[in-house]
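Justification of computing resources. Each target in the renewal requires a structure prediction run like the one illustrated here; the chain below, 177 residues long, is used simply to show the kind of job we budget for.
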Amino acid sequence: MDNKEPRKGEKAASAETARINRGVSTQPVADDACSTRTEAQSRTYYVRIGAEDQARIEALAERSNLDPDYVQRALIKAVRARILNLRDTATWHEVASAARPRLAEPKGTGAPFMKSMIRLDAAHMAALQTSIDDPLNVYGVTQLLSAFGKALLHSEIEELAQKISGIEARAARPDPA
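Resulting structure tokens:
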């Protein structure tokens, strides 16, 4: 009996609502969907890389005699781990100053570098937006995560460069034997 045909007026009202609110469902919403959600939601974020950063990664790979794809995978792994650590320790503010300028960059600049998912609850999202000083919620969570990811990528590239320089310096020292 729940599959009743809508009356003529209901069908017209539904069509008018759909015309005004394109992309918005005209189906009734379940009662619990209107309540405030506190469970974590998966968010997908993307980090794009510029030609300059790509060249640095390739140069680091060449200096260390490693495959550039291997170096890139190591950087992706490090960025993911650091973002999870920021989430778990609520220390977004530590990277916010490096992430903030990334928000001014045009969307979609650079080649795709990584795509990842993270689960965030309402408290995580609030901490993320508070750390970047976005009281009006101008930036979406995905945009913020991408900015943090790019800032962390720059940091990881720099750390890798220092690590490789240290390895090269140790290799250049004469053996005290």
